[in-house]
């Protein structure tokens, strides 16, 4: 779009007056932010309407990306950037004595996700819009995010993440497009004219109301849609009769029960009511999303048998896999297609991405719970299972294999198996991950459906994670190699010819130092901790889980601390270790790990004999907006998960794109980063894939052997329970038992010595400034291969079979 600075300033002042009857001098910062957001959405609305109209008029196939999470972060800055008016807005506001940076800080991070799954989904939406791919998101409009994390006396404390407290300026409520979702009840079956008819009775109806958010492509007039569903009551907000009798809690009980479906991301499922709520959430948005898609398609007048030509549903991990059975229900019960026709259409419409190797994340539902909550869906899943098992038996004549591959078995419904059987494509998210799926975790299915399986390595949007988050670096790149990389990120490879250029490297260093200095100032304000911007910024920010091995990082820090205590003159580059992570509320070991990190930080940061060389900081309430601040100033990227356990990772790509050097195991997409940059530009350590598999297969790993054979390790592990960390001896007893009594599931003790050596190598490399900057430049140059634009191009070509649509501006 085009708007000049004068027009923008006038439009902004009018918006303030229209919304709040205020001018620049009398308005609050919050009102200024809300007015600006409203104006930017208005600027995007013409493109939004044009995009929808052209998709419809040209009968273009459209992608619907179903995901439990869309971790979109803040939208103000990225929306202005993608509209191509960032400088105009920044300068125009400055002339009105308003800081765009300050207004961006007022926006709450959208509480729509937790980790890499949601961040990937957000990157994919951005890339689809920026490439002109007709692709939209479908999920849940959570009233509260996962939680807001507070650190109190070193412990994680969860408080509600009320991200909607100031409203959401970007969304549009579409009450006219609401649909009914049915839970519970009974299903009756009747036969008429040789056909079975199913009627759902005595169900609990829930109104699903969509809220649409524009997803703005980068300077290309395309505006796609993220549709999020909110659960509401149909006919009454509360029981007036109960209220009149003074039974006030009962009066609103039904309303709260319904609204709870879309209230909180990932409710605790350690109890049965939490499990029920999670299953309700999954069916709720899947049912609503598919009904909306079918209703929209039917308006075209095309036959339902051809819907696969115009609609593609992509299932992001197992959470939305109930979509396969729900789509079958719609086609058979509502559109009156036969089973065979419905199945043929469903399998062509559905595609599935697997995001995990961990068995615990391959979702299963107890049959009785599923059957009671979704009676008709259970009937369909059972029929899918019966027909599939028959196919398996006919091919192998092996009942044991049938049992292993059954969707319904041993009292549970395996949702990953349902997703595989009901989709035409099954992809992993990194080469190693896909290989493991084929050869181990899903080997039986790969043998049965060899043509379904494929790899699509994850990616990140360089618009947010470089252009927006690190504008000075983006400008340096453009001034060095031109701006073609912005539209073709693989052209970042042109930086390779400057990797040895001392002038370029010095500019690269200056940008990193300015980013670090800015971040240390923020740290000083928030935590009252002084951090040396000339120290190595060593960063591990990601979800807290045992396989990601924050423990390994902490153990190295303790080892370094003990070495400094014994030899204060130890020749090391000053190091600041940053952590950021949320532990799931019910994940006790992860929460204890956070306490351990903070305990170690308190010891080191208050020890004047070492704290000029060593600092540790746990960043509270890690989020997308915080990531945008820490990643551009990181020197070292910690990607130290146990090999074979991380599906891909995307944080590794973000750090790489911003010039950090990766210390990593050969796990997930680290393998592909290593292939690109070579041995000299990444620091690899730890067990290889075959070693891990061998240990797990033979069950011959003995953690206690590594504990006893390494005096450094023994001192650190014993410190968990002997009181030397200045806390009660019982404080970290569970971590101690996890490592020794429970045999160290993720091989922390095995990889410790190798990791310490790798960290020593980091120290040595950083001491050679010219070499370090060369490594940094090489990493940036190769990072374009990990842009989500490339990933989406591969999805579009090889799975969705769709091309871009050129959206033309409508002339007034």
From TrEMBL:
EC numbers for this chain: 2.4.1.1
GO BP annotations listed: glycogen catabolic process
Residues with N6-(pyridoxal phosphate)lysine modification: 654
Obligatory cofactor(s): pyridoxal 5'-phosphate
Cross-referenced InterPro entries: Glycg_phsphrylas, Glyco_trans_35, Pyridoxal_P_attach_site
Domain of life, source organism: Bacteria
GO cellular component assignments: cytoplasm
Enzyme class: transferase
Annotated keywords: Carbohydrate metabolism, Glycogen metabolism, Glycosyltransferase, Pyridoxal phosphate, Transferase
Transferase found in the keyword field: yes
Gene3D superfamilies: Glycogen Phosphorylase B
UniProt family annotation: Belongs to the glycogen phosphorylase family.
Protein name in UniProt: Alpha-1,4 glucan phosphorylase
Organism encoding this protein: Clostridium acetobutylicum (strain ATCC 824 / DSM 792 / JCM 1419 / IAM 19013 / LMG 5710 / NBRC 13948 / NRRL B-527 / VKM B-1787 / 2291 / W)
Gene expressing this chain: glgP
């Amino acid at each position: 779009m085009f708007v000049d600075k004068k027009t923008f300033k006038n439009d902004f002042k009018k918006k303030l007056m229209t919304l709040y009857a205020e001018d620049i001098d009398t308005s609050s910062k919050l009102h200024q932010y809300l007015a600006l957001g409203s104006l930017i959405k208005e600027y995007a609305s013409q493109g939004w309407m044009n995009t929808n109209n052209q998709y419809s008029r040209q009968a273009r196939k459209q992608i619907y990306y179903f995901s439990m999470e869309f971790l979109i972060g803040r939208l103000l800055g990225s929306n202005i950037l993608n509209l191509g008016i960032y400088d105009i807005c920044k300068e125009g506001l400055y002339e009105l004595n308003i800081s765009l940076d300050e207004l961006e800080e007022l926006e709450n991070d959208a509480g729509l996700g937790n980790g890499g799954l949601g961040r990937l989904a957000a990157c994919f939406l951005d890339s689809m819009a920026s490439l002109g791919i007709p692709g939209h998101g479908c999920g849940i409009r959570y009233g509260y995010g996962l939680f807001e994390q507070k650190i109190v006396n070193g412990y994680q404390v969860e408080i509600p993440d009320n991200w909607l407290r100031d409203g959401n300026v970007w969304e549009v409520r579409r009450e006219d497009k609401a649909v009914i979702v049915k839970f519970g009840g009974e299903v009756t079956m009747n036969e008429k004219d040789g056909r079975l008819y199913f009627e759902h009775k005595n169900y609990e109806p829930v109104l699903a109301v969509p809220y649409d958010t524009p997803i703005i492509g980068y300077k290309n007039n395309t505006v796609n849609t993220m549709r999020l569903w909110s659960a509401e009551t149909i006919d009454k907000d509360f029981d007036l009769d109960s209220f009149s009798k003074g039974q006030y809690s009962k009066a609103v009980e039904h309303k709260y029960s319904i609204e709870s479906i879309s209230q909180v991301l990932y409710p605790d499922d350690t109890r049965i009511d939490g499990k029920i709520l999670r299953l309700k959430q999954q069916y709720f948005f899947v049912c609503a999303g598919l009904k909306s898609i079918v209703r929209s398609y039917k308006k075209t007048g095309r036959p339902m048998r051809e819907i696969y030509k115009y609609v593609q549903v992509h299932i992001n991990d197992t959470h939305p896999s109930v979509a396969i059975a729900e789509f079958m229900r719609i086609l058979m019960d509502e559109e009156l297609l036969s089973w065979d026709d419905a199945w043929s259409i469903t399998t062509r419409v559905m595609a599935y991405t697997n995001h995990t190797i961990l068995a615990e994340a391959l979702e299963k539902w107890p049959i009785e719970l599923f059957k009671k909550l979704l009676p008709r869906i259970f009937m369909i899943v059972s029929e899918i299972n019966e027909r599939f098992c028959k196919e398996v038996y006919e091919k192998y004549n092996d009942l044991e294999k049938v049992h292993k591959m059954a969707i319904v078995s041993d009292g549970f419904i395996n949702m990953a198996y349902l997703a595989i059987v009901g989709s035409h494509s099954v992809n992993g998210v990194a080469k190693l991950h896909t290989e493991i799926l084929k050869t181990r975790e899903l080997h039986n299915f790969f043998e049965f459906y060899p043509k379904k399986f494929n790899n699509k390595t994850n990616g990140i949007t360089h618009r947010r994670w470089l252009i927006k988050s690190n504008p000075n670096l983006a400008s340096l790149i453009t001034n060095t190699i031109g701006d073609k990389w912005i539209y073709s990120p693989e052209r970042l490879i042109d930086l390779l010819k400057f990797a040895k250029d001392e002038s370029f490297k010095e500019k690269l260093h200056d940008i990193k130092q300015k980013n670090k200095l800015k971040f240390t100032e923020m740290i000083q304000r928030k935590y009252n901790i002084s951090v040396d911007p000339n120290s190595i910024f060593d960063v591990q920010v990601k979800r807290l889980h045992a396989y990601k091995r924050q423990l390994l990082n902490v153990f190295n820090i303790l080892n370094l601390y003990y070495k400094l205590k014994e030899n204060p003159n130890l020749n090391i580059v000053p190091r600041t270790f940053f952590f950021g992570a949320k532990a799931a509320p019910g994940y006790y070991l992860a929460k204890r790990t956070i306490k351990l990190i903070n305990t170690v930080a308190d010891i080191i940061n208050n020890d004047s004999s070492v704290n000029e060389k060593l600092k540790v900081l746990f960043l509270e309430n890690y989020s997308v907006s915080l990531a945008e601040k820490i990643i551009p100033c990181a020197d070292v990227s910690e990607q130290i998960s146990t090999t074979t356990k991380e599906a891909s990772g995307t944080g590794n790509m973000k750090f790489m794109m911003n010039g950090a050097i990766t210390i990593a195991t050969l796990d997930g997409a680290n393998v592909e980063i290593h292939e690109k940059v070579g041995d000299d530009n990444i620091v690899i350590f730890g067990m290889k894939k075959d070693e891990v598999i061998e240990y797990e297969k033979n069950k011959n790993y003995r953690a206690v052997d590594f504990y006893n054979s390494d005096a450094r390790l023994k001192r650190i592990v014993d410190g968990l329970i002997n009181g030397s960390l200045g806390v009660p001896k019982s404080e970290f007893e569970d971590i101690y038992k996890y490592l020794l009594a429970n045999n160290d599931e993720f091989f922390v003790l095995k990889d410790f010595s190798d990791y310490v050596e790798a960290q020593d190598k980091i120290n040595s490399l950083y001491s050679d400034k010219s070499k370090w900057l060369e490594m940094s430049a090489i990493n940036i140059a190769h990072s374009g291969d990990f842009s989500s634009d490339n990933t989406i191009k591969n999805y579009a070509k090889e799975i969705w079979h769709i091309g871009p649509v050129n959206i033309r501006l409508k002339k007034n």
